[in-house]
Design goal:
There is one protein chain. The protein is of the alpha+beta class. It is built from 6 helices and 9 strands. The strands form 2 sheets. Strands 1, 4, 5, 6, 7, 8 and 9 form a 7-stranded antiparallel β-sheet that branches. Strand 5 and strand 6 form a beta hairpin. The chain is globular and about 45 Å long. The chain binds flavin mononucleotide.
């Protein structure tokens, strides 16, 4: 599929269908989302998306149900080692319940949550730091939306969740470290143009 076809055919699913995916799929999606592509001088890190001052204020978390090689839970994707680090034992339904659209998550494969550490770039960018962090989350989100399509999955962005409930689930204070974006992906069951 060409890049233009990828864009021309994208759509946010309104529901997902049951389907399995492999560890290799998961690895590919994570790498496209936020993989490390370079290390310069042991300090500067390059990833699959740009970051103001290479400070990378956004971290990528995943909620998964149990699969062939992994337990159900919430995971941190560690770009530098290309590993998923288990952070909690909550399955996808627990994350779904932090939204008013729990039914959307049924049969989904991955729930992606971008968490901003708002302090990480503030020393350099001051009041502009927040803007840069939000822009960066958009870059990562786009990587996720396009990346899952390498295996026939589709993504729907979800900004409508209960802030405190999601932050509590992931053990963030919602002040310095804030879940700012959620994306749910899987095999599309139905889509709409509205
Ligand atoms: C920032 C943002 C927040 C969104 N939040 C939600 C949401 O909470 N629930 C939902 O079902 N869709 C959400 N969407 C998806 C939009 O509803 C969807 O992109 C829009 O209807 C256009 O459809 P399309 O993506 O298929 O082109 C969100 C999209 C964006 C970019």
């Amino acid at each position: 599929m060409t890049l233009s076809t990828l864009f021309a055919t994208r759509r946010s699913p309104e529901a997902f269908a049951f389907g399995r995916f492999t560890t290799q799929d998961l690895a590919n999606w994570c790498w496209i989302a936020a993989g490390q592509t370079a290390t310069v001088g042991g300090i500067y890190e390059g990833r699959t998306y740009p970051s103001g001052g290479a400070l990378f204020p956004c971290d990528l978390f995943l909620a998964l149900d149990a699969g062939p090689d992994w337990d159900a839970g919430t995971y941190l994707y560690q770009s530098s080692t290309h590993e998923l680090v288990l952070m909690g034992r909550e399955p996808i339904t627990s994350v779904a319940e932090t939204t008013p659209q729990a039914e959307l998550f049924e049969y989904s494969a991955v729930v992606w949550i971008i968490v901003a550490s708002l302090w990480r770039n503030r020393f350099k960018y001051g009041q502009r730091a927040l803007r840069f962090t939000m822009i960066e989350a958009g870059h990562m989100a786009q990587n996720i939306c396009l990346g899952v399509r390498t295996s026939g999955h589709e993504a729907r962005c979800v900004g409508g969740y209960y802030d405190d409930e999601l932050a509590d689930l992931l053990h963030f204070d919602s002040l310095h470290e804030v879940p700012i974006y959620m994306i749910v992906s899987g095999i599309p069951a139905t889509t709409s143009l509205t």
